[in-house]
Amino acid sequence: MTDQRETRQRIVDSACDLIHRRSYTAVGVAEICAQARTRKGSFYHFFPSKQDLSLAVIDELRRILDEQVLSPSFGRDLPPLRRLERFVDHLCGFQQGAMAAMGRMPGCPFGNLALELATTDEVIRRRLEVVFAAIRARFEHVIEDAVAIGETGPVDVRATAEAMLAYMEGMLMLAKTANDPAVIRRLGPALVQIRIPPG
């Protein structure tokens, strides 16, 4: 059983790397199997289709994002707006690490997949929507805390969180296009300032 778990994880890890490095459509099953050092029979044992694998990839990338960026950023050891600043720092560091590993700026894996597949694969679109909702919820909690202690005045919490999420995705896309994670450092402070007034 341990060997099976390890084989499955190698497939998922390889797919995470290849899809984030390139794209969903540019990566085939044979290439994933080669990098994972496994046969196609093993691949299809765990994942009847590439779509099934992609859902596992999204879940794994979400776990990594939570572990390396979201949880360290949004701990309540800092005042709310400082947490947002820390989030920008962690986001930039995460992308710098990815660029060092891949040789170029990969951008947001969820944004990349959404742009590529949201209009053609409803199952993947829904899974990505869940991921974005979870990130938005992190912003909502910070904004609620900021309002509660008077760091900011009344705002539309949901709309402000959505605007922060949209800004984050746009910032990552610009950084990817420029092939330069410094774009995140330069534009990140504006994320902290986003406010949508109530009503």
UniProtKB/TrEMBL annotation:
Protein name: TetR family transcriptional regulator
Matches recorded under InterPro entries: Homeodomain-like_sf, HTH_TetR, Tet_transcr_reg_TetR-rel_C_sf, TetR_C
Domain of life: Bacteria
Key words of the record: DNA-binding, Transcription, Transcription regulation
Lineage: Bacteria, Pseudomonadati, Pseudomonadota, Gammaproteobacteria, Chromatiales
Domain annotation HTH tetR-type: ranges: 5-65
Secretion signal span: none
UniProt KW Transit peptide keyword: no
Ranges of the DNA-binding region feature: 28-47
Gene Ontology molecular-function annotations: DNA binding
